[in-house]
Write a structure and sequence with these properties.
single chain, alpha+beta, 2 domains, 4-stranded mixed β-sheet, 7 helices, about 60% helix, elongated
């Protein structure tokens, strides 16, 4: 049987961006609120009605691994709250791009982050056309400007200094 950290790791790996994480957390809140209504519906019905297939599948898998019965609302509540706590521990890698990335590009960036930095990181991607190309990366207090705009500015500075020296 998987331990709790592996269960949560599987769930968190399915969340790639801040937007996806906020949406997933919001869906958990809706499910939590629905579990304890006076006329609560069976869990299977709630999952089908309130959540998309991916989210409900993730929750069902976690319940299965932890041997939680679908009628045990207290255990389900604990599981959902534990998932939310793990989500709050995620670190954010801020990325500025000159374009809106496709799902495929986000997947590729996320895979690179997993391979090179590790688990527990989500992407916060913002479009900034002024960078022309490349990216600005902000992570854990570090800032790296890998943009074409920066290269142009460096070339202009170099050209200005060269011209001053030639005079």
């Amino acid at each position: 049987m998987k331990n709790d950290s592996l269960i949560y790791s599987d769930i968190l790996k399915s969340l790639k961006t801040v937007e996806e994480t906020e949406e997933f957390s919001s869906k958990i809140d809706v499910l939590l609120n629905s579990l304890f209504k006076t006329q609560a519906k069976p869990l299977e019905e709630l999952l089908k009605k309130l959540l998309d297939l991916k989210t409900s599948g993730i929750i069902k898998q976690a319940m299965s691994v932890k041997n939680i019965n679908s009628s045990d609302h207290a255990a389900i509540e604990t599981l959902l709250n534990d998932i939310k706590k793990e989500i709050q521990k995620l670190r954010v890698l801020k990325l500025y791009l000159a374009f809106d990335p496709t799902t495929e590009i986000i997947d590729n960036i996320f895979e690179w982050v997993l391979k090179n930095i590790g688990n527990g990181i989500i992407l916060d991607i913002e479009k900034d056309e002024s960078i022309i190309g490349g990216a600005i990366i902000v992570f854990e207090g570090r800032y790296k400007d890998l943009t074409i705009r920066k290269r142009f500015e460096e070339l202009n500075l170099f050209s200005a200094k060269l011209m001053d020296n030639l005079k």
